[in-house]
Amino acid sequence: MQGAKVAPVGFFGKYPALVTGFFFFMWYFLNVIFNILNKKIYNYFPYPYFVSVIHLFVGVVYCLGSWAVGLPKRAPIDSNILKLLISVAVCHALGHDTSNVSFAAVAVSFTHTIKALEPFFNAAASQFILGQSIPLALWLSLAPVVLGVSMASLTELSFNWTGFISAMISNISFTYRSIYSKKAMTDMDSTNLYAYISIIALFVCIPPAIIFEGPQLIKHGFSDAIVKVGLTKFITDLFWVGMFYHLYNQLATNTLERVAPLTHAVGNVLKCVFVIGFSILAFGKLTSA
């Protein structure tokens, strides 16, 4: 119709590839900071289930505060969306707990080497669960990753089965999380989606922390950490690791909204390379990174 005004195209719409690239960069950057700080905490406070709860708790407080001021406006949910969100949140909670168990048990670099297998699990889930056809060339391109992880596992000085199995479980959990999240994004934007996931996942992660670590924390866990680094640093470290955890996951979810789950998983491999490199620089040697 003549005379009709065309809505101006915003920056996000005008340069989608640039925006997606920026999301990937910020995801990587925040994740590097998170992993270094997270491992430093485990060096004096080795309680991964409790730290997992703190990660989510700080993020939930951030989300509730953001909703309170309308940035973003809270998206309403119904019973059907809630059921899907619960599935996503359970996968997120399981992957989060097992990732942190692995981080506490072995070097950060080794955990991320194992997590580089995520595209393989994602491709398998896409083909055998979603029914998507994965080209043979893609399967062949993943073979060097599988071989490299196998060789790294055989030669890793900090290897133990707890760290290895936990990292593998997190791969499977996060694969399903990505698939279910993509389905949920048809009814909700990625920022609100991750806020709801964080809230539900927090309640899922609290019972294991109480069961597995509660008595030790009350008996000596908190007091030992305070003696080692002081109360102020202990609380400050937990706050900032929680903030960086939430922000990097928020950026990861925003990125997933813009790309396919398999593309997101491949991007996660590149993120692992960044984290491995910077963790070795931060901790000085592979076996302590």
From TrEMBL:
<feature type="domain" description="Sugar phosphate transporter">
    <location>
        <begin position="19"/>
        <end position="285"/>
    </location>
</feature>
<dbReference type="Pfam" id="PF03151">
    <property type="entry name" value="TPT"/>
</dbReference>
<keyword id="KW-0472">Membrane</keyword>
<dbReference type="InterPro" id="IPR037185">
    <property type="entry name" value="EmrE-like"/>
</dbReference>
<protein>
    <recommendedName>
        <fullName>Sugar phosphate transporter domain-containing protein</fullName>
    </recommendedName>
</protein>
<dbReference type="InterPro" id="IPR004696">
    <property type="entry name" value="Tpt_PEP_transl"/>
</dbReference>
<keyword id="KW-0813">Transport</keyword>
<dbReference type="GO" id="GO:0015605">
    <property type="term" value="F:organophosphate ester transmembrane transporter activity"/>
</dbReference>
<dbReference type="InterPro" id="IPR050186">
    <property type="entry name" value="TPT_transporter"/>
</dbReference>
<feature type="transmembrane region" description="Helical">
    <location>
        <begin position="161"/>
        <end position="181"/>
    </location>
</feature>
<feature type="transmembrane region" description="Helical">
    <location>
        <begin position="136"/>
        <end position="154"/>
    </location>
</feature>
<dbReference type="InterPro" id="IPR004853">
    <property type="entry name" value="Sugar_P_trans_dom"/>
</dbReference>
<feature type="transmembrane region" description="Helical">
    <location>
        <begin position="49"/>
        <end position="69"/>
    </location>
</feature>
<feature type="transmembrane region" description="Helical">
    <location>
        <begin position="225"/>
        <end position="245"/>
    </location>
</feature>
<keyword id="KW-0150">Chloroplast</keyword>
<feature type="transmembrane region" description="Helical">
    <location>
        <begin position="15"/>
        <end position="37"/>
    </location>
</feature>
<keyword id="KW-0809">Transit peptide</keyword>
<feature type="transmembrane region" description="Helical">
    <location>
        <begin position="193"/>
        <end position="213"/>
    </location>
</feature>
<keyword id="KW-0934">Plastid</keyword>
<dbReference type="GO" id="GO:0015120">
    <property type="term" value="F:phosphoglycerate transmembrane transporter activity"/>
</dbReference>
<feature type="transmembrane region" description="Helical">
    <location>
        <begin position="265"/>
        <end position="284"/>
    </location>
</feature>
<keyword id="KW-1133">Transmembrane helix</keyword>
<dbReference type="GO" id="GO:0031969">
    <property type="term" value="C:chloroplast membrane"/>
</dbReference>
<keyword id="KW-0812">Transmembrane</keyword>
